[in-house]
Each structure stands twice: as structure tokens, then as C-alpha cells.
Amino acid sequence: MSSHRSEVVFGLFQFALLMIIASCRGQGSQSGENQILGSEQTLSGQAILLCSQDCLDRAQCGLTEQVETVLLSSFGPATTGHDMAFPAGTGVVIDHQEMQPVIQVSDQSSSRVPFYFVNVPDLGMGWVAGWCVGQQVPDG
Questions:
Q1: Separation of alpha carbons 127 and 137, rounded Å
Q2: Where are the chain's structural domains?
Q3: From CA 127, how far away is CA 97, in angstroms rounded?
Q4: Radius of gyration over every alpha carbon of the chain, rounded to an integer in angstroms
Q5: How far is the C-alpha of 79 from the C-alpha of 83, rounded, in Å?
Q6: Which tens digit of pLDDT belongs to each residue from 69-99?
Q7: How many contiguous H segments (helices) and E segments (strands) does the chain have?
Q8: How far apart are CA 67 and CA 126, in angstroms?
Q9: Taking Cα atoms as reference points, which of 123, 64, 58, 57 lies closest to residue 88?
Q10: Residue 5 phi/psi, 5° resolution?
Q11: Which of 10, 55, 85, 112 registers the highest number of CB atoms within 10 A of its CB?
């Protein structure tokens, strides 16, 4: 009987873990649906922070206290050592963009990635990877 109870508890634990992982994947327009990412096209003006699949795959966003959060850096374009975090869906104003080399740790391949210096109104300015910022695609 104790063994059966342990199996049930373990099964419930696995289900809860899968639900948590699924919630980290993003939902709605904040996950990049109906959005053009800054890594796909050069952006300017008003934009929104996004926890897109590309952003999530590169560990530039995630779930903190049940809120999707995007990571930024105040000191320069970065993929590690971030010092700022804002909820996905936060509106920003793009100041400028710079292409920066990024090395993929798994295979040491290099590519150039756009980073955007953005103003988060009343909260500060920082750098965000193009995978994590976007604009609404016009209907039509």
C-alpha cells in the first residue's frame, strides 16, 4: 500500500512539474505570436518585451513568481550577467540597435545578433537581445 501511495505522489509531482514547464513556454501575444521579433527585422520606435521561444531557448527570459520575465543589461549587450528584469509585455521605446557577435556554447559557432538599447518608461534603460523584443504585426 505504501508503494502504491508513493507512485501516486510521484505521478502527481511529475504532472505538476510538466505544468510548470509548460507555463514557462509563454502564452498569448507575449510569447511572440502576432509579433515581429527584433532578431527577424530591424525595429524602431515603440516595442514590447517578449518571452518568445527564441528568447526562452537562449535563457534570456523565464517565469519568476508566476510572471514571465525578460532579462536586460544596463552595462551593455549581454547574454549572461543581466542586472535588470521586466515582465513580458512591458512597453519600451527603442533608442538604437547594435549587431553583436554571439558564440553558441554548445558548438562554439558564432553569429551576429541585434541587441536593442531600450527605454523602459519611468524605470530605466537597458540592453535586450533581439529575440526578446518585438512589435505587433499589423492586421491585414
A1: 23
A2: 27-136
A3: 9
A4: 18
A5: 11
A6: 999 999 999 999 999 999 999 999 999 999 9
A7: 2, 9
A8: 20
A9: 64
A10: -65, -40
A11: 55
Q: Please tell me the chain's helix, strand, coil percentages from 3-state DSSP, rounded to the nearest 5.
A: 25, 40, 35
Is 121 buried (19+), middle (13-18) or exposed (0-12) by CB count in 10 A? exposed
Which cell numbers in the block locate residue 126? Answer: 537597458
Task: Give the three cell numbers for residue 100.
Answer: 553583436
- Which H, E and C letters describe the chain, residue by residue? CHHHHHHHHHHHHHHHHHHHHHHHCCCHHHHCCCEEECCCCCCCEEEEECCCHHHHHCCCEEEECCEEEEEEECCCCCCCCCCEEEECCCEEEEEEEEEEEEECCCCCCEEEEEEEEEEECCCEEEEEEHHHEEEECCCC
**Residue owning grid cell 524602431:** 44
Residue 22 identity: A
Residue with cell 514590447: 48
Q: Among the listed ranges 21-25, 41-45, 63-67, 93-97, which one has the minimum average pLDDT value?
A: 21-25
